[in-house]
Structures are given as structure tokens and as C-alpha cells.
Amino acid sequence: MAAPSGEDKRLILLVDDSATLRMSVRSVLGPAGYELLEAADGQEGLEALAELERQGRSPAMIISDVNMPRLDGIAFIQRVKQTPFKFLPILVLTTESEPERKLAGKQAGASGWLVKPFQPQTLLAVVKKFTRSLD
Predict the structure, then answer these.
(1) Pairing of strands 90-94, 35-39
(2) Number of domains in the chain
(3) What are the residues facing 14 on neighbouring strands?
(4) Nearest residue to 117 via CA among 95, 133, 90
(5) Fewer beta carbons under 10 A from the terminal one: N or C of the chain?
(6) Which ranges of 2-119 does DSSP label H, i.e. alpha helix?
């Protein structure tokens, strides 16, 4: 899959089962010029990526929770890494802070780990870092 271009440079796939958390992330990243494509669990996230692939599009990065129904974040990341989107940076945004969970995320292919609740400026800085090379 080609690197994101044009409008997709600001497209982020957000995968989290909490509507409140998705709204919080949207309220931080939206005003900074990012477009969010939202999914309520890992399975929905995979479906969103499949649709983007059909459209010839790619998000700049993925933000994913760990604890979700149907397909959890670790399994979601493992599945993403088997797709044309395998090189996308994936930020885990979760309440989980145990070293074992972080290691599992890293081994699955996560690029970063941020614990909820997050500071808005920290989230924005991390997203900018992951998407900076696209500017």
C-alpha cells in the first residue's frame, strides 16, 4: 500500500469501543486538522481498513485501545501487520499500564503506548511525531 497522500496525510483510524473516548480524541485531533475514521472494535477496524484499501486510500496512522469486544487491540494489531497496512504506525491508547501488556503490544507491532487518561497535548505531540514524516 502506498504511503498516505493528499488528504490522507491527516487521516487517522481510531479503534476504541468507548464512544466517550472517541469523542475526546476527536476533540483534541479535529481542531489540529486531523480527520478521524472511527471503529468501535478491532473487527470494525479491520473492515474500515479493507474499505480504505478498496478506495486506494491509507490512513497516516492507527490509534487503538486494547480491551474491546469481538477483536481486542493486540489481536487487531497482529492482523493489521498481515495486511498491506503493515507499516503504518500504531499507537495503543489504553488504561493498561502493566509491563507485560506493553511488551505484548510491542511484540504485536505497536509503535507506541499511551495510558488513559491522556493529556491532550501529549496525544497531539505523539500523533504529530508519528505523522511528521508525511508533511
Answers:
(1) unpaired
(2) 1
(3) 38, 63
(4) 95
(5) C
(6) 19-29, 42-54, 73-80, 99-108
Overall pTM surpassing 0.90 (yes/no): yes
**108 neighbors 92 (Cβ within 8 angstroms):** no
Compute the distance between CA of residue 10 and CA of residue 36 in angstroms, rounded to an integer: 8
Which triple of cell numbers denotes residue 92?
Answer: 495503543
Burial (0-12, 13-18, 19+ Cβ within 10 Å), 99: exposed
C-alpha distance from residue 53 to each of 1, 2, 3, 46, 56 (Å): 8, 10, 12, 10, 5
Specify the residue for cell string 488513559.
116
Domain that holds residue 102: 6-134
Q: Has residue 123 got a pLDDT over 80?
A: yes
Tell whether 1 is covered by a domain: no
Q: Residue 70: left (phi > 0), alpha (psi -120 to 50), or beta?
A: left
Render pLDDT for 75-116 as a digit per residue (tens, 0 to 9). Answer: 999 999 999 999 999 999 999 889 999 999 999 999 999 999
In a domain, 83, yes or no: yes
Task: Tell me the pLDDT band of 135, cut-offs 50, 70 and 90.
Answer: very low
